[in-house]
Known about the structure:
This protein is an alpha+beta fold. Among the domains are: 3-67, SH3 type barrels (Roll), CATH 2.30.30; 75-214, no CATH class. The chain contains eight helices and nine strands. The chain has helices at residues 67-87, 94-105, 126-134, 161-174, 176-196, 200-278, 282-293, 295-304; strands at 11-14, 26-35, 38-43, 52-56, 60-63, 110-113, 121-125, 150-151, 156-159. Strands 4-3-2-1-5 form a five-stranded antiparallel sheet, with no helix packed on it. The longest helix has 79 residues, at 200-278. The termini are far apart.
Amino acid sequence: MDSNRVEVGERFAYREYPQRRGSPFMSVEIVEKARTGKWKVRFMDGPNAGLVDFIKSTNIIVPWAEAEGFLEDEKRMHELIEASSAEWKGPDDPVTQAVDTVLRATGEELFFHDGERGAGHLEISVEAARRVLMRTGLEWEPVELDPLGFIDRTGKLHLPFRTSLKLAQAFAAAEPDSVNISVMSEEFRWEEDCRREYRGTTVDLVNKWRAGWALAKKWTKAAAKDHEVQLSLDELRRRVESTFAAMWQKVGGIERQRTTEIQRLRSLLERAAQELKSLGASEKADDLLSEMIGPKRRAAAAGKE
Length: 305
């Protein structure tokens, strides 16, 4: 840790082999500063409890009060890196390049660990992650994005590569213009640099990056294509609904015409029956009316009698 944070009389977490992440700590109390990069300490626990010895600054990892949280962060980071390593294809892979390009297009302060030890995992503040998520169609709560994602003791959110990829693709889909402008700016800047001063290594890098830039632009085009398909489906749905509405309207009009015609015919038959009765043909008039009301209604009327 930073030697400027080490103070005499305070307790710190000591690790015999600093590079062995996850290895246990011993508690030491700082007695005095011996010289640059070295401290006189008293071991407070473990097999060396009570021993006064000299240790290097590199063996002092964190203040003792932070030791438990630090070990928990190391454990969760180890699990995250292992999962990312299984899916991440290295810093030169076009997918890695595309994810990095799109995430930088968000304009937020973040760190995409595309080195070998970082395995393509994303480090970002929770607030910045929420702002990015609000611009996409993903879940707005950052810790819900991935079961391996976690917030460390400093408040930073860490996400594995698979979720970095998912976030980049979602952002490209939501804001294709932002991504395309960022890609075009990078292409122009590096191509101008190559034209202004030819360097073989730079040209090789630019040619390598082109695949990542193309993939980032493809994510925006795929999103636009999906949008067009959705618009086509919406238009088809609208036309089907409009056709059905017109059909039912027409059927309703036919039904109304049918009802009107039945009522007109009934009125004509009733008038004919009245004429027959006035001419003394009451029996024929009754037969006509009986036929008009139909057999079911005649049976119902006979039952009442």
